[in-house]
Structure formats: structure tokens, C-alpha cells
Recover the amino acids of this structure.
């Protein structure tokens, strides 16, 4: 093998792999256990009126288009919580779990979901299986909010790929 | 230094460092504070019967063999939570903390613990001290479950090492 | 592009970017909502007397000097929890969110806050915007503790930078 000085790397314009997934989240409200895919496990604290401190665990289907009933190609498993006093803002950490004829493996993501921005980036910090050791960026967009349901559009761009 | 195009990297067959650790977790049940190493900090929600939403904080000893009374070579400090409606499934984030004559430093890990699979991989997303800036994969295996106790076998394989 | 064998990399002595930030955290105690920047969302469990299991969500200002009233250059958004039975010890995951004329983007960090050590390192596992895909180390120091307030000095050293 070669010793490589990795201190400074070129900021690639083009990712080595890119795809778009839609995340569908339906919050549990006690009566909808059959359809719900997420559940709050802590209560908001009195520090603000914007759910500061509410932590939500989720196992959400991911589809290739906007339709919640489309066949899921993967699942997003993890949690987020609200963390701002003056408006809604969140922080996410989760895995995208693939287990299909096309892909087996996971992507691991974390970062701030700056909900007041039209798009916001979080980090893909690792991967396993078909996504062995990958790194990249996921660009999130709120695509729909309706009562207990929200949909995120996620543009996944991987900039370090191992083959 | 050299500018390096890191877009595509070779998927190494052999890691630069590899070792196996056994994680011993004993859940607190109110009466066993002396022996317990983890504690649930949220309650399961009514969304399912598989502990969905229970979040557990742990500080677990890691040993080189399966025996819980062997001298720990490190500790695993972090949390996991259950996140599936239809069976047990979990998500982990934690640090492996070394502080011995052999190793000082930490490894930071996160990922989905797909409990229905015999082995499952999570990401080593960083390291400090002797494990400066490392990345890799940890392969988890449920090695024992007995009441409040479980043991995980963790095969750690580091694919990016700095010397 | 070039295929690069990244198995073994040189441990750089000098980071490609380095800066120091002070984190100011003021815990919510029901009466101080106006000033508080963090809030406990779970209760300590009976496993120990050192807050084991208390999880705290925060949105803390970051300044260039020690003064809490200095103009924040970024915010730290995330959570930590206490995780040791025999003394205070914590685990952190958070984003540093820049949104100024100087920097736009985020750094994502996680790791063990070994509170009994004068300095301790956690991992910078990714970045976005001006900190696209970066990695590095943050060295934490407890700089002040006063009632509900604590201040951390964070020396951020990035060892992988993309330009």
C-alpha cells in the first residue's frame, strides 16, 4: 500500500453516487398505532412553546416517489428531537437500512435539521454492506406536512465511495 | 502536501487493525444498582409491544473473552433505543473508551442494530488518541441473553488508520 | 479520477484548519426560561447519585472568547447525557451551526466527554457548507461551572479539509 497525505483533498463537484429518497413519518397519537411510524418518548419542557426537548423515535418507510403507499426501498431508523426556543428546529441521527434485491446495507447520518431553511444538509458519516465506508451529504427538504404526517425529500450525495 | 482526488477508493479486503471485544450489559431493575451497567430513561410507548421508544443509557465493560468477570480492557459508553413495531430492533450510538497501559483513546460508533440478523454492521465514524481519526466497521453478534443481561460480540475492523 | 489506496494515511502533525470556540450552557430550572439554553428531558434513574440517565437537549451560543454576552459566532445544537455510576461523566452528540457573514455550514460531532480528564477529545465526523465533508478532533476543557451554568472551551482541529 501507499502512504497518502490526506490533509487537503479536492472538493469534488460530482458525487460518486447520488439518489433521492422520500421519508414518510406518521406520529403516534395513541389511537393510530396501526399506521404510525414514530413516537414521542419525552415531553416538551416548559422552556419554550416549540416542542423543545421532545424526542421522537422513528422507523419510517423510504420510497422513490412522493406516494406513501409506494413500495418502500429502505427504512429510516433513528430519532430526532426539537431543540429551539423561538421556532421549530430539530436534530437527527438515523440509519437508512436497505434490504432488497437491489441493495443490502446501511447508511448512517447525523446533523442539524435547520427547519427554517428551504434545504439543509446533514452528514452521511459512514456506511455498511453495499455502502461500505462511504461518506457524503444528504440534502433535506420538507416536502409535505399534514397533521401528524410529514414527508422529507432527501437527496443523498456520496463523495467517498469504496469499490 | 499533495492534492488527492478521493472520489473513488479501493475497497480494501484487509483492515489495517482488527480486534474483538465482548460487551456485557446488565439492565437496572431498581434492586440491582450495584451490578447494573445500564438503565432505561424513557418508557416504551403504546405504539407496539416490542419496547418501541425505550431508550437505555449504558456504561458497559468490554472484555477480551466472554467472561463478565474478566478484567475490562475498555468501556462502552452511550445509548441505544428500540425502534420497531413488529419485533425487537435497536439503534446504537456510543464510544469505546480505552484507558489502560496498552491503549488510551476512544472509538466512536453509530448504527442500526438489526437484531433479527445473525451479524450486523455498524460504523466506526471516528477515533481519538491511539485511534486518531480512524474509521471502520464493527460487526455485532448477540452472544448471550439471560434475563436482564446480554452480551454482544463486537469484531472491530478499522480500514482507515493514521500513523 | 484516480484509484487511491487509503488503508494507511499519515498522521498529520498540523491540522488544515483550527479554531477555538467557547460553549455557554445554562440549564432550565423552570423559572429561567428567558435565559436558559438547555433543558433536561429525562430524569436520572436510581442506579446512581451522579445523574446517570439524565438527557439534556441544548441550543447553546458559541463565542470567540469566554464572555457569555459576546456576540455568538455559531450555535451548538444537540444533546448530552450523564452515563456513569461513580462520578459525573457524559456523552455528547451535536452540530455546530454557522450562519454568519464569515461562515455558513455545520460541523457534526460526537464522543465521550470524560469529565474527570482535564482535556478530552471527541470526533468531528462530518461537515456541510463551508465545512464540506471535513473531519477532525475537538478538544474539550471545562472552563467554568457556576450553578446552572457551565462553559466549555473547544479547540477544533480539522485534519481532512476539502477545497
Amino acid at each position: 500500500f501507499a502512504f497518502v497525505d490526506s490533509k487537503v483533498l479536492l472538493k469534488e463537484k460530482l458525487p460518486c453516487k447520488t439518489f433521492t429518497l422520500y421519508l414518510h413519518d406518521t406520529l403516534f397519537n395513541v389511537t393510530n398505532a396501526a399506521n404510525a411510524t414514530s413516537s414521542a418518548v419525552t415531553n416538551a419542557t416548559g422552556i419554550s412553546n416549540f416542542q423543545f426537548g421532545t424526542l421522537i423515535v422513528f422507523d419510517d418507510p423510504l420510497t422513490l416517489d412522493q406516494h406513501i403507499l409506494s413500495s418502500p426501498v429502505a427504512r429510516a431508523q433513528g430519532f430526532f428531537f426539537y431543540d429551539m426556543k423561538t421556532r421549530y428546529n430539530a436534530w437527527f441521527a438515523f440509519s437508512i437500512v436497505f434490504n432488497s434485491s437491489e441493495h443490502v446495507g446501511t447508511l448512517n447520518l447525523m446533523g442539524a435539521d435547520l427547519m427554517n431553511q428551504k434545504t439543509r444538509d446533514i452528514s452521511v458519516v459512514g456506511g455498511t454492506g453495499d455502502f461500505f465506508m462511504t461518506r457524503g451529504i444528504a440534502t433535506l427538504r420538507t416536502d409535505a406536512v399534514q397533521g401528524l404526517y410529514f414527508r422529507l425529500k432527501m437527496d443523498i450525495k456520496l463523495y467517498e465511495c469504496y469499490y
